[in-house]
Specification:
There is one protein chain. The chain has helices at residues 2-28, 32-56, 61-90, 96-102, 112-126, 139-155, 160-166, 169-184, 203-219, 223-242, and strands at 134-135, 188-189. The protein is mostly helical. It has 2 domains: 2-188, CDP-alcohol phosphotransferase transmembrane (TM) domain (Four Helix Bundle (Hemerythrin (Met), subunit A)); 190-243, no CATH class. Strands 1-2 form a two-stranded antiparallel sheet. α1 (2-28) runs parallel beside α3 (61-90), α3 (61-90) runs parallel beside α6 (139-155) and α5 packs parallel to α8 (169-184). The radius of gyration is 19 Å and the shape is globular.
Amino acid sequence: MENLKSIIPNSLTSLNLACGCIATLSMLNHHYLLAIVLISVATIADFLDGFVARLLKVQSDLGKELDSLADMVSFGVVPGTILYVALSKALGIESFDEILKSQNFLPFSGYIITVFSALRLAKFNIDTRQSNSFIGLPTPANTLFFITIPLIWLFGKDNETANDLITSLPVLIGITIVFSYLLIAEIPLIALKFKTWVFKENVAKYILILGSIISISILGYLAIPVILILYILVSIIENIKKV
């Protein structure tokens, strides 16, 4: 019976993986909305597989390993592909063949984020300190940051500032380096689970929630990177206070 129950969370993890594969192809073929929808589904499936496994009490090493492999595609290959496409657009390169002919291999540097995502997932699997919180930026959160780029392509064509940022080579290379570091950085990030609703014990979490609501109401989808940066800053301040 337990083996039958384990099919449910493992199926959700497999859905995560399948969505990541198709999202990668969608990005490469400029079907950005489909890629965004698929990554959203992958993120939901990634959350639910662990929740369902705990609920059914069928956590297993197989499920853990499968989850990491799925995350490597959905939250490792996909952000690298987004950066690859963004760097290609910034350089005016329209195809893989054009990269080879011009010998301008800069777009491939986007996959640095994929390499560091693999390091992040490998570290997470062997780090017993991350059972209730995170040390370093989780790969799904990292991917949500980069999802902002195709969102701007789709819905922010009139936003000159946003378009200038995502077509700037220094900005694209800079965020690749910064977020690659954040994935493996020894920075404790606050857990978003509430053990109690007492304000005094959850000040940082309430600040994050309030800041997120304000950011979304003002910026819409452009609030995604702002919320992520706020999350990192609040976590750093919270940890400094504990020292």
